[in-house]
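Schema walkthrough. Field components (list of strings):
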Amino acid sequence: MKFGLFFEHQLPRPYDRDDWDPDAEHQVMKHALDQVELADRLGFDYVFEVEHHFLEEYSHSSAPEVFLAAASQRTKQIRLGHGIALMPPRYNHPARVAERIATLDLVSDGRVEFGTGESASEMELGGFGVPREEKKLMWEEATRECVKMMTQSPYPGYEGAYFGMPPRNVIPKPLQKPHPPLWVASSRRETTMVAARLGMGSLGFAFETPEEAHERVEQYFELVREECTPIGVAINPALAVLSSLSCFETDAEAVEKGKEGTQFFSYSLGYYYSPLGAAHEPSKTHIYRRFIDTPEEQRMGILGGRGFGGFGGGDEEVEPEDEVKRALWRAAKRGGCIGSPDFVRDTLRKYEDAHLDVMIFVAQAGARKHEDVMDSIYRFGTKVLPEFQERHAMHERWRAEQLAGVEFPVNSSI
Amino acid sequence: MAKVDRIQDERLRISMQAAHTSLRAGDHADVVQRAGEAYIELLRRKPELLQGEGFQRQMRIFMFPRLGAHLEVEGGIPVRVAFDRQHFGFTEAVTYYEFAVDNLVREGL
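Field assembly_structure (string):
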């Protein structure tokens, strides 16, 4: 199993003020670059950077290609993942995506992971005029054509439902041939099965349990073998899931330093992906203050099905049935990889046994201190990561068995 | 074993197997239609899934993907699949198909 870091660039407003410190966004970017640099030195395999727009406090990462380009010049081996690039053309013209991906691949000496997706928050869809019911069609069309732009000279042109362009040679071309590994964000189980059928990696942003991961891995590889029609030229058979990371000497210290950040991550995510988010008042709503002012036992009510009308919560001990809300609930409730190195190691072994390819950690979350994030990354990288690296060859052999008979070209960094 | 083969109810299993055939053949509208009908049938046979508070009932209906089709509701109960458009992409059809199969298997039908 491989490991990555996941960045939203979370930036809660100060509790007692209505706006951020003037240097706050600058600091969060610089700190994140320090964290990536450390992860690279320790042997982490990936950094994945989101693309979100207008999601104040939750994510100040609207130009991931810029951040990843900066990271590329401070690192040597870590792979640089879009987690994900928003593909509906009203966010990004497919040719512009192809150009950026290729340029990043060139300046990073071929370290790009091309994650794709649609987004689902009303703030973003509404902000760019993307109809919710058509976003998946837009994603499919734009992603398919974008990959052609990276691989065909010239690109022969296209007239589709959501964009069109005449024949052009879209340049530069990526260093990795035929193109960087392809991924799709899979917050819902159904999308993981879409990924398998299209030969894409599944970036599961859903905080799955090991048992769920095991079932998905089995079904995913079965579909890759039996029903795959690649959307690109090369397939990237891979499954990644997300977890929270707060790794300290003791479980108690890890919870103390990591709990609130993890809860805020889930709370603010749930906020923007609920009807509350659709009613968000830009530059006015103070999410962190609402979070803090809500009794802790009720904070996750927003994610629990009964809390959508407010933060009242309700029966927080009952897992929501809806897959997305359940994932959010678990992220907050279970805390992911929050604990001592022993606790984190034991947790991760279950995912390793499930043959998961990549575990991606949210280390920077909420108001966690930069020093604590660095400390946590360092402790994981020195006390937990090495043994998983040593066992990865076994996983590679397992993958080779799963992919026996698959005749498509493969470009995968697993 | 493909997940669709784990559907215990013969009629639903045959219908979803036909949906799978349509998926492979590119008849995406048929996939959406069959997936929607199967989900309605699931809710009809398991009315307890629609019990509870208003919000929870709404979520059961709302969980059905809204990617060009939705469930028409009468008296709080989904009764038919309504198409907002006639053309569906491959990924949309897969989403509807997987949603239906997963729910049928999970609920033991």
